[in-house]
Amino acid sequence: MPSITRRIAVQLLVCAAVYLSNAAACAAQQSAGEPSGTAAKESLTVDQVVSRMEQRNQERAAALRTYEGTRTYRMQYRGFFGSHDAEIVVAVKASPSEKEFTVESQSGSKFIIDHVLKKLLDGEKEATDDQGRSRTALTSRNYSFTRAGLDDSTDDPQYILNVVPKTDEKYLYRGRVWVDSNDFAVTRIEAEPARSPSMWIKKAEIKHKYEKVGDFWLPEENRTDSLIRLGGRALLSIDYRDYKITEATSLSVSSNPVVGIAGH
Hey, what CATH topology would domain 3-248 get? Predict the structure, then answer.
C-alpha cells in the first residue's frame, strides 16, 4: 500500500475511534425499564428526558457486570488509491471497566488489520477507564440538548434530541440521538465528529443502533462512512451478535412518564 494511503488509513482509524469511544461508554449503561403499560402519561421537557436518562444510566452502569459477544469489524476503501478490504471476527468479554478481545479470524489487507482494525480494539480498551467514560459520556456536562421531535413509529415512542458538544474533546460528536420513552436508553445515534479528525477526511457520517438483549440495550450495528479529500470513500462497519449476559444485578425502577416532549 503506498505511504500516502497508509497515512489516510491511520487517519480513518482516528475518525472511527471518535465513534467507538462513545459507543463503549454507552454500551455498558443501557438497560430496560418498567413496562410501558405501567407508566404515567405526561409530556416531558428536554431537561427532564436528559435527567432521567442520566439517572438511569448511573443505576444501569452498576447493574450490568459482565457480558460476552461476537463482533465482525470490516473496512472497505474504494477510490483513487485502489480497493482495499479487511475483516476481523472478535470474541468479546466485557465489564463497565474492562474489555477483553480475542481475534478469532481475519482476512484481507494485513496493513488495515494491524494498523486500523486492531488499533480500534486498543482504543476501545482505553475508553473504558473512568476518566475516558466521564469525558465522552452522553451527559449534560458534555453536551447541550434541544428538542428535535418524537418518533412514534415503534411500540414505545422515541424522543429525538439534538446534541451539540460543550467541549473540544476529540471523541465527542454532534447530531441526533433517539431515547426510548419507556427505558430512557439510547436506541439510535446519527452524528458526525464534533471536529474533523484529519485533513484527509472531507466528511464522516456515523450511524449506530442498539438492540434489546434481555433487560439490557447493547450495540447492534455501527456504520462510519468517510469521504476522502483526495478521492474515494472508506466504510467502517461493526456488527454485533451472540450476546450473553453473564452477570447482572436487579434494578429498582420507578414509574416513568411517556409520550410527547414539552417545550424546553
Answer: outer membrane lipoprotein receptor (LolB), chain A (2.50.20)
